[in-house]
Amino acid sequence: MNITIIGTGKAGSSFAVALADVGHHVRLIHHDQLDVLGEPDLVLVAVPDDAITVVAEQIPRSDQYVVAHVAGSRGLGELAGHVRVGAMHPLVALPSSEVGAARLRGALYSVAGDDLVDDVVTSLRGRAIHLSDEQRVRYHATASVAANHLVALMGHVQQLAESAGLSLDDFLSLAQQALDDVASFGVHQALTGPASRADMATIDAHLAAIPESERSTYVALANVAFELAEKRRSASHA
After folding, report:
1. Which of 145, 204, 220, 233 has its Cα between 20 and 30 A from that of 114?
2. What CA–CA distance (Å, rounded) separates 210 from 88?
3. 131 close to 110: Cβ distance less than 8 angstroms
4. How buried is residue 105: exposed, middle or buried, by Cβ count under 10 Å (0-12/13-18/19+)?
């Protein structure tokens, strides 16, 4: 398949490597090079979400190719006016073209639109799920929490660790153990610590000891842990 990718950032370059590796003929261009689309079967728009509509409007209309984007929270409306449209968002993080390309192969994809998009996912040995526009926004919000907010949480851990004279590295294995427990036992059974047992004395001691700038984050997350613990207790008494 001939695929032209618009956007040379992490997403575009990751897709370029992954698609070429599975045998597609790939052309990677910048958003201001739309005069060199070539003769594609698929034009894949891999630009920032807010730029999709602007870039799509500049792509010549044709029924000879599909125009698709890779944004998780956007539907097909951003591609209005094109004859054949689609969307394919991979549920993976793309930190670099090499790592991203490896993760794209075999990934879960949220897809919509033309069947050609499903064919591309299949060529990457991926799994496709089809969502409504409303579902897509909630799906992407969940993805943002699972990836971006988790990184933000590790930033909180780093600040607390450094305030105690330690480093983030000292706590990464503990964090990985917690994630492994979630995968093995579920969120309710994986929850441990003072919030899980309503140990307010320990939580108050924590709040007194940690930097003031980190207290609001600690409280917000402790409240979520309280809610999880309460759901666990309610389920055990049901």
Report:
1. 145
2. 43
3. yes
4. middle
- Which DSSP symbol is given to 2? E
Rounded Cα distance between 106 and 92, Å, is 10
Q: Which domains can be identified in the chain, with CATH numbers?
A: 2-131 (3.40.50.720), 135-237 (1.10.1040)
Tokens of 185: 């036992």
155 band by pLDDT with thresholds 50, 70 and 90: very high
Q: How far is CA 58 from CA 34, 49, 78, 117, 118, in A?
A: 7, 16, 12, 21, 25
Q: Can you give the length of the chain in residues?
A: 238
The CB density around residue 130, as the number of other CB atoms within 10 Å, is 12
Which residue is it, tokens 């794209």?
104
pLDDT at position 3: 98
pLDDT of residue 217: 97
Which position has the higher pLDDT, 82 or 134? 82
In three-state secondary structure terms, 32 is: coil
